[in-house]
Amino acid sequence: MRIVLLGAPGAGKGTQCKRIVARYGLLHLSSGDILRQERTAGTELGQKAQSYMDSGALVPDEVIVEMMAEAIKKAPQVAFVLDGFPRTVNQAAELDQSLVRDGQRIEAILNLSADDQIVAERLTGRRSCPQCGAVYHVKNLKPKVEGLCDNDGARLIQRPDDHPDVVANRLQTYHQQTEPVVDYYKKTNSVYDIDANKDADEVTVILFENLDALVSV
Ligand code: AP5
């Protein structure tokens, strides 16, 4: 199964991908996570991406397409879920071409739709563990001890791009550049629209129903 999870920043892509991975054993390929790892490692790619990410803009297509093609090629026989990629129509078209060359295709697109105000609250309240990557929320998903990760006790941090002014830019970027990707896929692929305003567990149930049906075909 090769699937794409689309949705606005804060729609819950990362949260739901972890659950999908646990149930279906897919490889989780998150463009945002890979970029953050590159930044932490201080690579040329990470340095190139930094200013775009910090302002809420998209990293240029050519950089991202090459990075994600590499990640997919590292595990050619493995089923995967893409999170945060593709994010422009150009990226989607490049991905299609590269998969076709390798005799593969995307089987389904799960599109998480959520209102701007709801996702803005989720993002500004998100806290993450710098060590294990666990994600929390100051109201919706509190750690057992305030400010500390349940898994390893590390002090939780706020992503620099989760500050309110950057969140507004990210949402604008999403509407202008990423929403058209949904229409691109609707012309050729199965797209499942999921109401992601709901509670995370309710969203998971709907996603699993759709994916179970896909697996049983
Ligand atoms: P990236 O890391 O991909 O960020 P994003 O798409 O903005 O997505 P997020 O990780 O912020 O949100 P999410 O949907 O995963 O939500 P989450 O599950 O964490 O990208 C960062 C930057 O990298 C981009 O701005 C860009 O610069 C660059 N980039 C990345 N990919 C690129 C590409 N392809 N092209 C160009 N540039 C690229 O949930 C958020 C919070 O809400 C959490 O606290 C969670 O606990 C909570 N929550 C989740 N679901 C629910 C729910 N249903 N109800 C209540 N709370 C919930």
Topology overview:
Blueprint: E1 2-7, H1 13-24, E2 27-30, H2 31-41, H3 44-55, H4 61-73, E3 80-83, H5 89-101, E4 108-113, H6 116-124, E5 126-128, E6 135-137, H7 164-186, E7 191-195, H8 200-215
Parallel strand pairs: 1-3, 1-4, 2-3, 4-7
Antiparallel strand pairs: 5-6
Helix pairs in contact: 1-8, 2-3, 4-5, 6-7
Bound molecules: BIS(adenosine)-5'-pentaphosphate.
BIS(adenosine)-5'-pentaphosphate is lined by residues 7, 9-15, 31-32, 35, 52-53, 56-59, 64, 84-85, 87, 91, 122-123, 126, 135, 137, 140-141, 161, 170, 196, 199-200, 203.
Overview of the structural elements:
- By secondary structure, this protein is α/β, with parallel strands linked by helices.
- It is 50% helix and 14% strand.
- The chain contains eight helices and seven strands; from the N terminus they run βαβαααβαβαββαβα.
- Strand 5 (126-128) and strand 6 form a beta hairpin.
- Helix 6 crosses helix 7.
- The structure holds BIS(adenosine)-5'-pentaphosphate.
- BIS(adenosine)-5'-pentaphosphate binds next to helix 1, helix 2, helix 3, helix 6 and strand 6.
Keywords:
about 220 residues; alpha/beta; five-stranded parallel β-sheet; two-stranded antiparallel sheet; 8 helices; 7 strands; about 15% strand; globular; binds BIS(adenosine)-5'-pentaphosphate
In short:
The chain has 217 residues and is α/β, with parallel strands linked by helices. It is built from eight helices and seven strands.
